[in-house]
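Q: For a teaching handout, I want to show students what a protein-ligand complex looks like in token form. Below are the inputs, and the small molecule is zinc ion. Please produce the holo structure.
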Amino acid sequence: MRREWEYRQPVDVHFGRGILDSLPDAVDRLGGHKGLLVTSPSFVSRGVAGLLVDMCGGRLAAVYSGVSPNPDVTECDACAAMLRDGGCDFVVALGGGSVIDCAKAAAAVCRADAAAAEYLGGRPLPPDVLPIIAIPTTAGTGSEVTPVSVLSDHIRGIKAPLRCDGFYPRIALVDPSLTDSMSPYMTACTGFDVLCHAIEAYWSRRHLPVCDALAVQAARLVLDNLLRAFTEPTDTEARDRMAEASVTAGMAFALPGTNCAHVCSYPLTGRYNIPHGEACAMTIDNFIRLNGRKGSDRAVSLARALGYDSPEALADAVSALKSATGMRPDLSEFHLGDADVESLAAACMHPNMRNNPVEVTYDELLQLFRALA
Ligand SMILES: [Zn+2]
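A: Here is the structure, written as tokens, with zinc ion included.
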């Protein structure tokens, strides 16, 4: 039994409906003079980006809106070039995980000479990162409170997390009203991302007592509110609780890290274009059952903390929530052959799989994907 542990959460978190209006105060606290707003095209067309620029009275000097889902290293380089060429001293990221992750990486890459692809290839990141204000617009990523940025290199077929302390935003403004316009499908995908962050954080080999408490609370909030937010998109109470779940789950996994379902999600997204949260949902109930069957006491204590007798009972509840929210049940639409299944299983033998509470073998992954194929 481990007795010593350390916990750190350096992000200033401000939560509430309408908290977006406090952006100018946040910029004041950073001492920012010239910032870049990083966002996705939809927030420009809906006028939210313009609103933030106006609110900051000239201190948000430019907008980079070239971020796509699963942002590519070249988008990060383009954003870094704007930061460098514009002489920016801070970054505001308004968007889902893709936007916040791209902004984090660009805030580091703009301080160095190499291209983002080299850092994804293992080059150490520069320690000196521009300060970031993160404003999440989905209840999913948790990226506003983590030191992680997930980037893709589509040419080399890589999607992987980068991690550095400088990636912790300085300030997070979590305004649930920004999630009100999410479609039911997007609500479900991002909600399952939150649930997986919470579950994987709890049973991570690097689990921590403080993070356990955060993980249980976040998972409970999802189990109690996701279906409501999915079926009643205008239910602001459910939206608020899901936004709370997302930031709480982010704090839960920031240090313990993710494992099984997240490891499997990367090739599922990269190869079959399944959105991140739905790709995580694809295997999470299977892993709850597998970890339970293989005798993980963490899977047992998680199930009990959430009010279930066993991991099997928790997995049944998660499977039911998946089907009630329209998450695809399997990979049958992709008509996978034996070689595809073997290659998927091989791609999941990633070092992060060792952060699962029990060992997962290649044969077990093969079995899992055969059952889903
Ligand atoms: Zn995730």
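A: Two things your students might notice: The mean pLDDT is 96. The radius of gyration is 20 Å.
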